[in-house]
């Protein structure tokens, strides 16, 4: 495994700082908005980006490359966590949901967690205000197909939230 040299390190750090918000959003989405889990996932994604950086093609978009690695790393971690037993620990850090808006937001995130990886990624890109044309190219499909899939995801989320 070839690690980046010092010149690449500065370049990598500059790119990482530029797209840190995007990576953090992915971490929060896949960690159920648990700050500790999001921090762990962020570290894992940065590690994966770092060891993959020597294979990064400088003529391509760092953002798209980093987003793809972040999604793949997050999805892999999420699938691993899904298979492991769940334990609920009661701690003083847990907070009560004190208003209806927070409850609705929690229900929405719970519903998003039930989506498959592809739909979660599509929803993230859509909510991140990425142009439909760009989303379509990432999924190797048409804008119309993306619009249709987004509509189906919204309908599915509405059903899931209403069921709860």
Q: What is the compact description of this entry?
A:
By secondary structure, this protein is mainly alpha-helical.
Helix content: over 70%
Q: Judging by the overall fold, what is the CATH architecture of the largest domain?
A: Orthogonal Bundle
β-strand percent reads under 5%
Q: How many structural domains does the protein architecture include?
A: 2
User: Can you tell me the residue ranges where pLDDT is under 50 for at least 5 consecutive residues?
Assistant: 89-98
Structural category? mainly alpha
Order of helices and strands: HHHHHHHH
* Largest sheet geometry: none
Termini separation comes to: 48 Å
The total count of strands amounts to 0
CATH topology of the largest domain: Rna Polymerase Sigma Factor, Chain: A
What does this structure look like?
71% of the residues lie in helices and 0% in strands. It folds into 2 domains: 1-90, Rna Polymerase Sigma Factor, Chain: A (Orthogonal Bundle); 95-164, Winged helix-like DNA-binding domain superfamily/Winged helix DNA-binding domain (Arc Repressor Mutant, subunit A). The longest helix is centred in the middle third of the chain and has 22 residues, at 62-83. It has helices spanning 6-18, 20-30, 35-52, 62-83, 100-113, 117-127, 132-138, 143-163. Helix 2 crosses helix 3 and helix 2 packs parallel to helix 4. It is mainly α and 164 residues long. It is globular, with a radius of gyration of 18 Å. The protein has 8 helices and no strands.
